[in-house]
Amino acid sequence: MHIKVVLRQLGLNERHAAIYLACLELGSASVQKISEKSGLARSTCEFALKSLVEKGFVTSFKKKNVKNFSPEDPKKLVSLAKERVKLLEEALPQFTVRYFKGGSLPMVRLYQSEIGVKNILQEILDEATELVSLGSIDDIYAVLGHFFPKFTAERVKRKIRLRTILRRSVLAEKRQETGAQELREVRIISEEYDVTSVTFIWNNKVAMCSLRDGVVAFVIESKELATIQKTMFELIWNTLGGTKLSVENNG
């Protein structure tokens, strides 16, 4: 992962990241030198450095009456991240109290990025005791090929059993063959069905992910809707009975 992407994940915007990297290369330096190194205006650097000091990325001191800045050891970034996680964990009960779960309307969350889908998969790992899904494994791997095997390994580690209905492909048939060792039972529908997305159902939640022409995914939290989706899944699952379902067989 590119270092600037990592810094953005830690809460730095593009200018802050550029200035922090300039500080790393310069060591202790004045605002003027940091400005020259980063290619940003002095006024921009002054404002950003103040923010970086507050965030704990750099420290400031005076040398011959000139204010200088030094970057914190990069190893300290790990400590800073851990401190933020600890603060979030301590505040989690307060967030949970405010998190809407009741009422007659289902809760819906929308994601429009690969990171959003990864968050959904992590949510499944954290909550599910069993999981059912329907979709195209080829489209999943086209978008999450570098991540999905890790999800599968962690799912197996947590002993979360999966029943999945997949659109027929070489990859789908391979997953059917290796299903037993990965706590997975696979039934296959014909490639004639134009299934290019994937649906996950667990507990009282349904996640639907569209993976072509840009990533769009949403999670619905509703006992009623999850039950309906699970019932539809079971109807298809029982119809398949371990064999391929074709368009003709479906009427």
What is the topological layout?
Layout: H1 3-9, H2 14-26, E1 29-30, H3 31-38, H4 42-55, E2 58-63, E3 66-71, H5 75-98, E4 107-111, H6 114-127, E5 130-135, H7 137-144, H8 148-157, E6 161-167, H9 170-177, E7 184-189, E8 197-202, E9 205-210, E10 216-221, H10 223-240
Parallel strand pairs: 5-6, 6-7
Antiparallel strand pairs: 1-3, 2-3, 4-10, 5-8, 8-9, 9-10
Domain Transcription regulator TrmB N-terminal: 7-74
InterPro entries: TrmB-like (IPR051797), Tscrpt_reg_TrmB_N (IPR002831), WH-like_DNA-bd_sf (IPR036388), WH_DNA-bd_sf (IPR036390)
Organism: Candidatus Taylorbacteria bacterium RIFCSPLOWO2_12_FULL_43_20
Describe the structure.
This protein is of the alpha+beta class and 251 residues long. It has two domains: 73 residues, Winged helix-like DNA-binding domain superfamily/Winged helix DNA-binding domain (Arc Repressor Mutant, subunit A, Orthogonal Bundle), CATH 1.10.10; 138 residues, 2-Layer Sandwich (Endonuclease, Chain A). It is built from ten helices and ten strands. The strands form two sheets. A seven-stranded mixed β-sheet has the order 4-10-9-8-5-6-7, sandwiched between helices. The protein starts with a helix and ends in an 11-residue tail after the last helix. It holds the Pfam family TrmB. This is Transcription regulator TrmB N-terminal domain-containing protein.
